[in-house]
TrEMBL record:
Family: Belongs to the SusD family.
Keyword Calcium tagged: no
Gene Ontology terms: cellular component: cell outer membrane
Record's signal peptide: 1-24
Keywords: Cell outer membrane, Membrane, Signal
CDD domains in the cross-refs: SusD (cd08977)
Name of the protein in question: RagB/SusD family nutrient uptake outer membrane protein
Source taxon at top rank: Bacteria
Domain SusD-like N-terminal: 26-245
Native organism taxonomy: Bacteria, Pseudomonadati, Bacteroidota, Cytophagia, Cytophagales
Localization terms from the record: Cell outer membrane
Broad class of the protein's primary localization: membrane
Keyword Membrane set for record: yes
RagB/SusD domain boundaries: 306-580
Length: 580
């Protein structure tokens, strides 16, 4: 869990022993007045703000939104992605729902999520250490910092329990299963790193407790300054509470909090023309955003770490384009592409872009009739428009590379000529290659937005007996996707909760709520958690069947990922999830 703490502690003790045994009477001791210690740090509100900045930055550590989370974790488990890169066996296993306890990507996510918990605990301890010497005028600022720290600790625990918890709470069952350790203080010794797993219910209760405290401390708080818009607001807290209550099937509390956000936050869905580009560094902190993982381009270093201001997830998702010779060229690492079956799920059924009989993926072999049909269905909106918000279509869409417009290609290294090998669009650089921004993409990740609240609210109403209002909120989300006014009936409205969707598969074909959550948040990292809590992993595996590296190997224990072997070696009180 916190093996890095153990290593740090050992090193610190070792250095202390050296300094003690090496001292002699004639050795001149020099105290460093600038050294940090608990006696002089934190010494001001600014010191606490620095710790808070580090806590926010941990969200884009390499194991989280800095690099791994979408293309090397969640996106593999729910088959948002398939792999062009076939050189890492454990990565292929992730995509086959066969995650290995020794998977390095998984360990990095575990490590960095716990790093967030540790930093939250350090900040919360520091706040109370500073409080006795603080001024009366500083109390409001202290409470705001504490509220943000508790929200963020809950945020990190959300990922820990949702990825590694043995179960979700479903129909009142599963709360007694194993969750993750609950740690509320920064470890000061090895014994404090030896912590057993709490139950699933205990962890969710802890998350909700932190959020309830944050709700009080941040009551009425919004942030308007440009350098503060990323901070946790009162509506972010209420929205997160609503989501937590949905995830624990506490429908009464979920309804209260989600309705409060809908009625009183002042948030509204953005028009489609704004929505379609807001995942690519434009239109951030907009009218539907409740909480974003804030990123900025940082040309001094590359992404994949909390010392950087950006993310290198775009390096993994990067599109490929038509090079000068007509063949595919990588715009970055270009490791993953949308699983081919996702294209059909959006309702696209216009055949393939290469002419029949094509044996080489080259722009000279593109079928012009396919391009014409594709442009027409896009214009007529007979295919879900969110397909092109999420993905880039080969030989129809384009990107900019070194200032030159280039067509998107059949994805690099995909030797299966007839496979729908599109490129991702969300969270990639549309105005250049990722290397042109130092592998440091500045596009914010929308962690909670009003469309999510609408669909969570619809789910809550479905479980509370108000099907008519539930259908209306599902339709609000769909209307925006098709550029209709959100609050009035439209030609694309679902007429029932079992109406036909754009998908044709048994999972989503006649379930508007599930389809809208899948289509609206495609590529944003939400779907895996829906798959888990709805227990549809086996059905999804049957739909996708295989990835390029082999057949999907689904088992009921695949919902919970394995505790990394490094943690099992470091923490003697932790136990492995079943099936590993």
């Amino acid at each position: 869990m916190l093996r890095y703490i153990r290593k740090f502690t050992k090193s610190a003790v070792f250095l202390l022993l050296i300094s003690v045994t090496a001292c002699k009477d004639d050795f001149v001791e020099v105290n460093n007045p600038g050294a940090l210690s608990t006696s002089n740090y934190p010494g001001s509100i600014n010191d606490l703000q620095q710790l808070l900045t580090g806590l926010y930055a941990t969200q884009h550590s390499g194991g989280l939104y800095g690099h791994n989370l979408l293309g090397k974790a969640i996106g593999c488990w729910d088959h948002t992605v398939d792999l062009s890169w076939q050189g890492t066996a454990t990565w292929i296993a992730l995509a086959q729902n066969n995650t290995q306890p020794n998977d390095g990507f998984l360990f990095e996510t575990w490590r960095d999520t716990w790093k967030g918990v540790q930093r939250a605990n350090t900040l919360l301890t520091s706040i109370e250490a500073y409080r006795p010497k603080s001024l009366p005028a500083e109390q409001a600022a202290l409470n705001e910092i504490k509220g943000q720290a508790q929200f963020l600790r809950a945020w990190y625990y959300y990922y820990l329990i949702s990825i590694w918890g043995e179960s979700f709470i479903i129909n009142g069952q599963g709360g007694e299963k194993l969750g993750v350790p609950i740690i509320t203080e920064a470890a000061s010794g090895l014994d404090q790193t030896q912590v057993p797993r709490a139950t699933v219910k205990e962890v969710w209760d802890f998350i909700i407790s932190d959020l309830k405290s944050a709700e009080t401390l941040l009551a009425g708080k919004t942030w308007t300054a440009l350098n503060e818009k990323h901070k946790v607001s009162t509506w972010a807290v209420k929205g997160f509470l609503g989501k937590a209550y949905v995830y624990t099937q506490d429908w009464n509390n979920a309804k209260t909090y989600l309705k409060d956000v809908i009625d009183n936050s002042g948030k509204s869905l953005e028009p489609f023309d704004v929505y379609k580009d807001m995942f690519n560094g434009k239109n951030e902190f907009n009218s539907e955003s409740l909480f974003e993982v804030n990123l900025n381009s940082d040309m001094t270093t590359w992404g994949a770490g909390d010392v950087s201001a950006g993310s290198s997830i775009g390096m993994v998702l990067a599109p490929t384009y038509v090079g000068d010779n007509g063949s595919a060229a990588a715009s970055a690492w270009s490791n993953v592409f949308p699983h081919a079956k996702n294209i059909a799920r959006f309702g696209f059924n216009e055949g393939h872009y290469f002419k029949p009989g094509t044996t080489q993926a080259n722009a000279t072999n593109v079928d012009p009739e396919y391009v014409a049909r594709s442009l027409k269905v896009r214009q007529d909106k007979t295919v879900d428009p969110r397909l092109w918000v999420s993905c880039q279509q080969p030989y129809v869409d384009s990107m900019i590379v070194a200032g030159k417009k280039r067509a998107i290609s059949h994805y690099l290294d995909i030797t299966e000529i007839n496979m729908e090998a599109w490129s991702f669009r969300k969270f990639v650089n549309l105005t250049g290659a990722e290397s042109e921004i130092n592998m440091n993409n500045p596009s914010n990740f929308y962690w909670l937005r009003l469309a999510d609240v609408y669909l969570l609210y619809a789910e809550t109403l479905l479980n509370s007996g108000d099907n008519a209002t539930a259908l209306e909120y599902i339709n609000k989300v769909k209307r925006r996707a098709y550029s209709y006014p959100v609050d009035g009936a439209s030609p694309v409205d679902y007429q029932t909760l079992a109406d036909k969707t754009e998908a044709t598969d048994p999972v989503l074909g006649n379930d508007p709520l599930k389809y809208e959550r899948w289509a609206e948040f495609f590529g944003e990292g939400n779907w895996w958690f829906d798959v888990r809590r709805w227990q549809i992993g086996d059905k999804e595996a049957s739909y996708y069947q295989r990835v390029r590296g082999g057949a999907i190997e689904w088992a009921p224990t695949d919902y919970a990922q394995p505790i990394p072997v490094q943690e099992l070696n470091a923490n003697t009180k932790i136990t492995q999830n079943p099936g590993y």
